[in-house]
Fold:
Amino acid sequence: MNHPAFYDEVPGIVLYDPLAAFLGATDDGLLRYGYFDAVRLAGHSCPTVAAAYWSTRKALLALYGDETPVRGDIRVEFGQTRESGVTGVIANVVSMLTGAMAEDGFKGLGGNFDRRKHLFFSAHLPGEMRFTRIDMGGSFTVSVDLRHVPVPPLLPELMANCMAGSASVADAAEFRRLWQRRVRSILLEHGDDPAVFIVAPG
Structure:
């Protein structure tokens, strides 16, 4: 499948899913996700999808360190409502990666593997999202400030022309290139920038 090469440069996320192990979805219960999985879920690659993927990766590293994160054993809370701004898009990516779901999620088997009541909105938080290990109770909040990731100067004008249908074929191609260049910058150049991805206990 054709996609920008940098997608494959973005570090992946490996989680152990006890439900996957129980049902034989994988031999060892390990699920491997990459940035392209988030793109396929959302249907596009943009700063929001990139930030959602990377925020989750940062939170899992903070929560588990060298341990393998356990999918389905993570509680996620958002400070905004699901309908607010791009919160719903972010939540979909976070849910895919962590297994956290709201009331409409998987009900479990025989009292096990219940994924409901792990995803919440409109919570009072010191950051945008809070990730909590259900087994141990440790929590980290994550906020994202993309203002520190430069926007290519021509991008706004090119985007406006594309949306208005007045862009040339060359301009449309350049818009797409610059758009994905910023996404790449978020993930590969600013992924460890504490001014962009703010991770804190609690």
